[in-house]
Protein 1
Amino acid sequence: MYIPTLDDMLSARERISPHIHRTPVLTSRMLNELTGAQLFFKCENLQKAGAFKARGASNAVFGLSEGQAKKGVATHSSGNHGTCLSYAAGRRGIPCTVVMPRTAPQAKKDAVKGYGGHVVECEPSTSSREAVFADVVAETDAEFVHPYNDHRVIAGQATCAAELIEQVEGLDAVVAPIGGGGMVSGTCLTLSNLAPYVKIYAAEPEQADDACRSFKAGRIIADDAPDTIADGLKVPLKELTWHFVSRYVSDVHTASEQEIVDAMKVIWKRLKIVIEPSSAVPLATILKYPEAFVGKRVGVIVTGGNVDLERLPWN
């Protein structure tokens, strides 16, 4: 297992710079008063393809040799990684196949297709996803770009935290959502090297709390088919992301479905930005566990904005 390094992050930053946005950081006096902390929202919902995963996907795609690239890329994804890999593959002019749960939001399936990706549906479980994907790779011989258990992807995601600490001085903590752990791992990679005094917190839905249980148990505990409105956070940790989570994360906090919806509404109302449920989980946990953040300068990574407007969680 290759563990990505700071040099990998720096190389990724140079490699992907023509293909991504340097996303803005937003603040809200009302949200600061509500939480008792100074919150700095890193808006990856405004990233290319609508999610932070454009970073890791672009690093993987543009790091391929010409021979590898000709065969195309493939992945399994509940939505954003598949969309972002399709985006990056389209930029390089190579094919992309994405295995997606049949229950994934239609907006995310449409986004994959809109960037030129080919969608193959599977049942909404990790076991089904991986079985169907194995058939796809056997047929296409495409390069597998895992959504998060891939050193190229983690190095790409790590560029987000690198931007954040340049944009906001004196951070005490950073909070990011956790599913498989790609963004959290990238955050750990960057901050452990460049700002080791910054605490890292992971935020997770109560109904998909395998990372929280893993963190407490000291080993990976995987759920096969959790059910939560935060559809981007249903996947389990893997060996590479567990390496970072187990070593550098200070705590994993969870939020209920209603707390996630309430936080999502607050962000829509106060920051005037469209975010998806997964992106609301960090604020939900900050509101739920204020004692960890009161009086501190906290970076909040808003991971994506690819929400199905026909299926909003409060409707």
Protein 2
Amino acid sequence: MIRGSCLCGNIKFQISGEPYSLSYCHCSRCRKAAGVFSAVLIGKSDDLVITDGQDEIGKFKAGPDAKFERCFCKECGTSLGDMNSGDIYVVAASALDDDPKIRPSLHIHTASKPDWYEIDDDLKKFSGDYVSED
């Protein structure tokens, strides 16, 4: 079981099962929510359960064509990721309270990274094609 929460503690969640990956996401939405990139834990959506504070989760959809909603705590603003993206969850690793027992394995959406940032590690890279409307 992997537990997580927001900064103020109003929202708590649990993840059962093993996550698919821990990745560094460089899409423009993650950059704007977290900085240069966001570390995200990805797994099967049925494994994620909000245990406290469901009503405290704010959602932001970046335009009418956006596929996912960015989730955050309405009180403290903690970025929670997309939480439920269809068959998968995408959770901001910064909201985890427990060690997920996996380590970052790849960079995703690298085509959206800022020009001034160089990725200088040996992790796999997936360019992706997601760029939000700014």
Protein 3
Amino acid sequence: MSEFGTLTIRGLSEKPLSYSNFLSLIINYKFQFNLWHSSNKEVHIMVSPQKLIHLQNYTRAYSLPLEVMVSNVQSLIDGEQPAKSTDDSTFGWTRYYPLSAIEVFLDEILAKYPAVTTEINIGTSYEGRKIRGIKISYKEGNPGIFIEANIHAREWITSATATWLINELLSSTDEEVRSLAENHDWYIVPVLNVDGFTYTHETNRMWRKTRQPVEGSACIGADPNRNYNSHWMESNGASSNPCDETYGGPEPFSEPEVKALADYVTSIKERLNIMLAFHSYSQVLLSPYGWTSELPENHNDLTEVAKAYSDAVKELPYDTVYTYGSTANEMF
């Protein structure tokens, strides 16, 4: 990975060249790039240094500003994990853990809080791994909240956030947290893309897709987030090229992990009021729809919730700014 840097291309919405057209052009030009973030104002991509000069010439030709954000991504990966210590036997949130450690954490939680926790078995991955989760329920009749994390393999902080949330819902003494925990049923799947997640720990830190081979192609996997049987391949963000990171798969639900999740959620849909999907990178709160710029009937309600979240986070010491809106309008 040491040959990659990270670039941002800003101001796309102010230029005659749209974001989607820009991506199409650089794909056709066969740039080696990895999309990290896209919006209607800027794009963040990781590109090989061999193609950097070509990209610079290309963006200059279209009067697109270009800025190098990170010159060596491998240096960030190398510094991602702290040195091992005697505390490594205890699960915590100062480092990232492989799937096996997350599963041990779930087992320990289930053993420690048997009265309010239940194991969730979503299904089995292409490579035969169990997709596990946990239900936290303090009383009957609570509205349900479903949380899915690490559908994109390399987004490790999402499963870290999910396990942290599980721990907080069970152990926090804060009155507001206790109210949230005890007055909702929580269904949390820390790692959905278990094969890809394992691959990021063992082989390629930047892997994003599933690990199922694609018939007729040397490329592996599909983007599970674009494999659902809902307006499949209608979004500007989905690709039909098996080698692309946003490849939607040969057909809807081709990826067993996605089909398993959809079947499980369908089986409990009457109990659910809220569904959340954790992703990184970027600070955005995305609501339906992704396949059309038209807005759902409850868009105003979703915006009100998103604004409340964004305002609350802005008040924290980190001063983090979250933008929000429908996926199609915010990202494309």
Protein 4
Amino acid sequence: MSKQIPAAPRPISALAPETRDRIESAALDLFAERPMHEVRLDEIARAARASLQTIYRYYGDKQALLDACVLHWANELAARMTDHLAGIETYKDRLRKVFWVVLDFFEQYPKVARMMLGSVYPAAMRHDITDEQRRLTHLFMDVLAEGRERGVLNDQVSEAILLDYFYGVLARLIQMQSLRASQPPLTSQVNILFEMLWRAIAKPDTNSD
């Protein structure tokens, strides 16, 4: 007897918007509280007032539901980044604005920060990135490449390493801020925090903007 192959999930776009909002909001709440492997799909279904069959039908499994939540908020961040970078001409100010936008976004949405830091790991995303994310990544990598070409950023490592430094500092700041509730908002310290990072990625012996 041949083994039955599970049916592929239906497109999430076919799910009623209000039902999708309830499911992904409930998932966000639970993924923000505990790592993904500690959260059960039936918990999400109960919190969302949706059937477990509906989640399986449109998402397939828990990892796909996490992916959908992350992609939703990554699109929000990508859109903000694109809007804020428009019209900024000074190179250093563009990097400063990227830094501020990320800090401000996760201050406004602390549950999203906890979800991403607690359950999302490198190479964990299984679905294709969106056009919005792709444009953002290309934009930022172009900014880093420009900095190296102008002799502003350290040219002894690749743009990918510079990106690791940049986002590595952001991830650590955002992660620890949630544990230091009495500390002032990171956005209120953005200039000094960015200058500390700038000194790490700028080309040695240059003060160029």
